[in-house]
Amino acid sequence: MERKEWPLWEIFVRSKNGLDHKHCGSVHATDARMALQVARDVYTRRQEGVSIWAVKASDIVASDPDAKPELFDPAEDKIYRHPTFYKLPDEVDHM
Amino acid sequence: MGAQMTMQTTPEHLEYVLRLGDAALIHGQRLSEWCGHAPVLEEDMAMANMALDLIGQARLLLTHAGKLEGQGRDEDALAFLRHEGQYRNPTLCEMPNTDFAHTIVKAFLLGSFNLLLWERLGGSGDAELAAIAAKSLKEARYHAEHTGDWVIRLGDGTEESHRRAQAALDVLWPYTNELFAPNATDDAVSAAGIGPAWAELAAEWEAAVLPVLKAATLTVPARTPFQSYGKFGRHSEYMGHLLAHMQHLPRSFPGATW
Q1: What is the pLDDT of residue B4?
Q2: Contacts of B146 in chain A (CB under 8 A)
């Protein structure tokens, strides 16, 4: 028999207003409504969230792990890009 | 709480709250049987969550019933130490899970009913019952939505899922007669402003349920004179086994805690 898996959905939960949605895992679901429902059942049982995003895993474009050397390594020796080298005037409270 | 309870407790009031409590308890017990056995992890969690919602409602309702009764029985005494004939849940609640389609159709029929019931009970003259209704209404909304979606998915799904959903509806539909059967308890409670006579909800319930069954391409069986009597304490052959399973631990180890 042909085996048909339900599509995979990546789940993002906002833990409280003002914070970003954070990736927390994935669920299998036949459609978007069901994805939200089961995400609620699987990931917000202990009051972890006030909002859920579900994104079809197949709609996410991801960088290639093998491309890590050319994508990320060149930043390694450019520590001057961090703002820690600037001296802040005392009047500036929050940065 | 005692001081708030200005109305005189009548036997009908107690009976009505027991029906609500037992319906939640037995429906929740049945759903909990899926824990670890549902077709997929996601639905296993959904079933267990619904079961826990219902058992939470049962705890509040049976605690309340115990207070109304005034004999010192708490939620555990009422949930675990009564005999079959003393339970007041509609027979539909105790019907076996059979397969996923049966469970979903049953939970949809009951969930849609509970939704209407809790909406009305929000305005109950019994302040405790009104508070329980406010909490339970949110849970019932989700149960009705989640199971309603599944009814459509199964009914309007594959040949096999349609066949199973239709078989479930054919078996379970006649048991919904009982929900709306007029009785003296409901009349008294309705007159006292404690809650609706369940029969009053029939038209609204059909208006909520029929479009979903239609969208699911399921054929609604014709109404028959069949009556079940669970809420009057006369249960089906399935109830004894369910109770034996549910009561085994508290009866073997009275007062057990962990």
Answers
A1: 47
A2: 37
CA distance B140 to A86: 57
Domain count along chain B: 1
With an 8 Å Cβ cutoff, are A38 and B49 in contact? no
A35-80 confidence digits (pLDDT tens)? 999 999 999 999 899 999 999 999 999 999 999 889 998 888 888 8
| CA A10 – CA A26 distance, rounded (Å) | 4
The answer to ipTM > 0.85 is: no
Nearest by CB to residue A41, choosing from B42, B145, B153, is: B42
Domain holding B111, by residue range, is 11-222+231-250
Contact A38 B149 (CB under 8 A): no
Q: What CA–CA distance (Å, rounded) separates B217 from B238? A: 30
Residues from chain A contacting residue B142 (CB–CB below 8 Å): 37
The verdict on residue B258 lying in a domain is no
Q: Going edge to edge, which strands form the sheet with A21-28?
A: A21-28, A8-14, A51-56
* CB-facing half-sphere around the CA of A22: CA atoms within 13 A: 12
Tell me if B196 is assigned to some domain: yes
User: Would the CB atoms of A38 and B42 count as touching at under 8 Å?
Assistant: yes
Any B CB within 8 A of A6 CB: yes
* pLDDT tens figures, B133-192: 999 999 999 999 999 999 999 999 999 999 999 999 999 999 999 999 999 999 999 999
Task: Choose from B31, B40, B41, B42 for mutation: most chain A CBs within 10 A.
Answer: B42
| Residue B68 clears pLDDT 60, i.e. is over it | yes
Domains (range + CATH), chain A: 1-61 (3.10.20.520)
Q: What is the CATH number of the domain that holds B83?
A: 1.20.1260.10
